[in-house]
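Q: Please design a sequence for this.
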């Protein structure tokens, strides 16, 4: 929830989610350079697409609870990397 609020507030973009299933037209990457490598990468694509006046559509999908594996987004190192990437993008826009 905090990640969503930070991204929405700082970059003035209103979406229900940033890190779910994404489908893109290949040509958007002709105009967008992605620098993030972690959790923030998918949000960076959406922010830059919006800034390039590319239409973004959301389609609701059913989310199911994780059955196996361990979530890594809440690790301290992942949080620090995400914060660094958010700050870098905010400075460049």
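A: Design:
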């Amino acid at each position: 929830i905090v990640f969503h609020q930070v991204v929405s507030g700082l970059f003035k973009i209103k979406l229900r989610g940033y890190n779910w299933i994404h489908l893109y037209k290949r040509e958007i990457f002709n105009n967008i350079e992605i620098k993030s490598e972690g959790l923030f990468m998918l949000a960076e694509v959406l922010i830059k697409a919006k800034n390039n006046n590319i239409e973004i559509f959301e389609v609701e999908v059913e989310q199911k609870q994780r059955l196996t594996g361990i979530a890594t987004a809440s690790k301290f190192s992942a949080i620090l990397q995400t914060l660094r990437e958010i700050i870098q993008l905010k400075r460049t826009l």
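Q: Thanks. Anything notable?
A: Helices lie at 2-11, 41-51, 76-92. The chain has three helices and no strands.
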